[in-house]
Amino acid sequence: MMKRIVAVAVAALAMTTSWAQAQEVKVGVNLPYTGIGAEFAQLVDRGMELYLKLNADKVRPYKITLIKRDVKDPGGANAKIAVQELLTQDNVDILAGWIYSPNAIASAPIVTAGKKLAVIMNAGTAQITNMSPYYVRTSFSMWHAGYALGEAAAKLLNAKTAVVGYTDFPPGKDSLAAFKKSFEGTGGKVIDEIPMGGAGAVPDFTPFFQRAKDKKPDVFFVFVPAGDHAAAVVKTYAALGMREAGIKLIGPGDITQDTKLQAMGAAAVGLITMHHYHADLDNPENKRFVEAWKKEYGATTTPDFMAVGGYDGMAAIVHVVQTLKGKIGVEQALEALKGWKFASPRGPISIDPVTRDIVMNEYLSEAVMKDGRVFQKVIGKIDAVKDACKEQKIGPCAPK
Amino acid sequence: MTPPQAGWADHPAALALAGRHRVRVWEPIPWVLALTFYFAFPKHLGFGTELLVTILFAISLDLVLGYAGIVTLGHAAFFGAGAYTVGMLAKHGIWNEPITGLILAAVVAAAVGLGSGLVLLRTHGLTLLMLTLCTMALLEEAANLAHDYTGGFDGLDSLPIAPLFGVFEFNPLYPKTQYLYVLTVLFVCFVFVRTLVYSPFGQSLTGIRENMLRMHAVGAPVRGRLVLCYALSAAIAGVAGGIWAQANAYVNLGTLGLDRAATVLIILVLGGYGRLYGAFIGAVAYMVLSHFLSKIYPTAWQLGLGLLLVVIALFARNGILGIAEAAVRRLRTPHATL
To answer: Which domain holds residue A265?
Structure first.
């Protein structure tokens, strides 16, 4: 009797393990689930989970297991340990996540040594994808919006002169560099660059804006973090009467992040932004995505560009799993992703076969009031934008 | 002058004082455990390395906080100074040999400690606390602004650190070399600090902590001692920072942040400060708990850690080692209460 039980148990065990080996794909997710980045981690996490939930039929017969690890902070060390242990202890097939650029930069040597596909779902410093041959990015580079906006300001808004005001931290500086490069390349001129304090606290913007106003530019390009900074920017812009003076306020879509936009209220009206995604985009995939999101996570919640980074990242992973039939070799996975095309909520996207970075549309939008809420109305679009920093090998993106 | 009474040297108090520096039987235990860890958990060495670096950093803080009684919230300034010394020298192709790199890190951090200590240690209490914080914030902002040299917010990546002794490579995925290297450096630094605190110099530090007025009265050069202690501690923190940068082949603004400074303070208080081994106990308790709890509950693990800290703060004012000491005392003097 005992023997039979043991035999059955062994057989069952053997079956489950062989089944698991054939079917299961382990994805190691590193995100800052606690601390100041917890809100962003939740957005990316929900984006990933939503894709898996809505596309269960695309995943079958494989089983994707997410192994989630908290990286705590942007310090690099914790992210490094998390990635290391996901590779050596959990033996994951694919890595994913990375909200903060410093963490992606710190993880690069381990990703290279670990030889696994690594999908970046947010971190936006342009040159990260150059740091490991296994990095693929499904989010954005700071250059996407900044560069596209420079072009749009000159061509669509007919601006000849611009003043740039930016929060003095890396995304701000990247945005400035990208905007300046394309705006001046299309015939415009940046007549003043104003650093407006750090990201830690909201400054009084009045002196910066007065300085910008005195220069009488056609457009005033502002990069500040989403939320309180952005709300203060919009209020100062109105208080100084800059719109009446004929100066348009423009910026990348970070300043109108969907999760913060409604709280900014009427003050946001008139903001012109360039970004690859906002929840008001008018396409069937996005309608489905936003509706499913609200059904899943509550009517008061909204997806934003970070959530889409996670959603599309998971789409890329599922594509790899299907193409390789569950056996994930890193070279084959990269091969499968190079030139991969997908109908994302942000419109058609693909992965650039050369840089492994995303290629996507950039939308020029204006915030207007509609049905008692702030609505982002698309007023222009640039198709298939690549990361110009790597495309043109500028500064830190140039091969060493 | 009355000569000391005959047999004073046999007095239990004198014996205890004279024998304080002797190695206790249990003192090799942490080192044996650290070596066992190396063989038993080859897949946890990345975490182990981080743990050892944190212990080293906590020991440097124990020297100023636990022994000299200097309350500081800005100790990461020296950790960062060491880390950036190693990072910038390696990244710009000037110097990448690990051991001499550490010495340079110590020298630079000690210079920062000496310079800031000369100014800061004229104050004490809350003023001192705020000034240490300010020094660290200034260094952090300087590193942020000097983007071309320090890499700014994104930091310096992929540091080309030379193999140890020209032989042992630093493998990023299985950091065996890093672990043993950090363990060795930790041991050397620990022996140094241990010798220091049991020397007359160390005794005078304790005296200053306990009663600064009296130390002034007996003619001890109080401020000189404090500044020297601060600089030595800074040097050790610099070594910790330098070795962290070498082991991770990476340095960024996080090395200079309040997060790091506050965490190491919590660790030391948790373990018990002014006790040498408090750094070990505190670091292991704090980091092992947060590491494994965060693995199990990535979103809510801080609750468990918070509970531990509350319990320690409420019931064990001298940290985990304080509990152990009280227990030992009670065992040794069973009749004391009679």
So the answer is: 143-275+361-397
